[in-house]
Amino acid sequence: MKMHNFSLACWLFLSIDDQARVDELLKPFNLVMGGILSIPIDLPGTPLNRAIKASKVIRKEFTRIIEQRMEQMQLFKENKEKMENNSTSSTPILQPPIKDMLSQMILSSDEINYHEGDHGTCADTNNNSDTKKTKKFMNATYIADMILSMIVASYHTPSAVVTVLMKYLVELPDVLDKVLSEQNKIANSKAPGELLNLGDIHKMKYSWNVLCEVLRLAPPLQGAFTQALTDFTYAGYFIPKGWKLYWSATSTHKNPEYFPDPDKFDPSRFQGKGPAPYTFVAFGGGPGMCPGREYSRIQMLIFMHHVVRRYRWEKLLPGDEKIKVNPFPLPAKGLPIRLQPRTT
């Protein structure tokens, strides 16, 4: 599952569809993942040191790809302008650049306030005047950092969530039946060979409620640090401006004030308006909400659509296998299962 996630991210973000090239990138990427949650000691041979070196290798390759795409997009723009200004020109027509996440990021202007130095400038001449406009674009290094961060976020998280999802679905056949019914209804509305689209994803309301309940009970991110922007008092404690604070997704999700009978698996909690704001924080909240939320949602729902319709599965170990966090929540014994094709 993690290998699939990495290959998918390389294709969607950078249009890398050569599996041999993906495999080469995966080697240093695994070193990066091994150092992210390691003891922060940067000495030769430590996981952190290996991760830092590996991240430089990945950034160098990503930067090369990004600069190549930037050059391609600039050449295409110049070629298009020549064709528009001279209809009789014999200039060969260039193929437009691939429209993927990378192209969108290159084209992103400074409508969002990026930190100074995170972007470069590009002169754009207005054909109707001598005035030059400048438009800011994120530079290649900054884009490489952002893409690496997104791939890191999409690597472990969805695979951990769908593993726990498989556990709950096999243990709760009534929930599985409702998910299967919803997914069959969507599949039956499609023409033969027609792929899922965004409209189909929006119809997966019950399936998304089930995934949200999985995320509530086993959030892949147990919590994170933030910083107090001003002095304030909470629960009788004075918190000075600048202090580091740790918010816990696990304790928030198990608060009986917001989630009655918090250990019970109940997808109906997310019907209608769902939980109160900032009580369900599997993706964080506010300005710091995970930017990959929609990507993860679509990825997990598509997986869910295909796995419940194509397979039946049963656990090979009897009893209730506990969820162990190390550092992601996963069944303690790996959830060995037997898959069988679904015939009905």
TL;DR?
With 344 residues, this protein is of the alpha+beta class. It is built from ten helices and ten strands.
SSE arrangement:
Blueprint: H1 2-14, H2 19-36, H3 47-85, H4 101-107, E1 119-125, E2 132-138, H5 140-171, H6 173-188, H7 198-203, H8 205-217, E3 223-227, E4 232-234, E5 237-239, E6 244-248, H9 249-253, H10 293-310, E7 311-315, E8 323-325, E9 329-331, E10 337-341
Antiparallel strand pairs: 1-2, 3-6, 4-5, 7-10, 8-9
Helix pairs in contact: 1-2, 1-5, 2-3, 3-5, 5-8, 5-10, 6-10
Describe the protein's architecture and organization.
The structure is a single chain. This protein has 344 residues and is of the alpha+beta class. The chain contains ten helices and ten strands. The strands form five sheets. A two-stranded antiparallel ribbon has the order 1-2. Strand 8 and strand 9 form a beta hairpin. Helix 1 crosses helix 2 (19-36), helix 1 packs antiparallel against helix 5 (140-171) and helix 5 (140-171) packs across helix 8. The radius of gyration is 24 Å and the shape is globular. The model is unreliable at 109-135 (pLDDT under 50).
Distance between the first and last residues' Cα: 25 Å
SSE string = HHHHEEHHHHEEEEHHEEEE
Biggest pleated-sheet summary: 2 strands, antiparallel
Low-confidence runs (pLDDT<50, min 5 residues)? Answer: 109-135
What is the helix content?
40-55%
Please report which band the strand proportion falls in: under 5%, 5-15%, 15-25%, 25-35%, 35-45% or over 45%.
Answer: 5-15%
- The 3D shape can be described as globular
**What value does the Rg take, in angstroms?**
24 Å
Classify the secondary structure makeup into a structural class: alpha+beta
- Quaternary state of this entry equals single chain
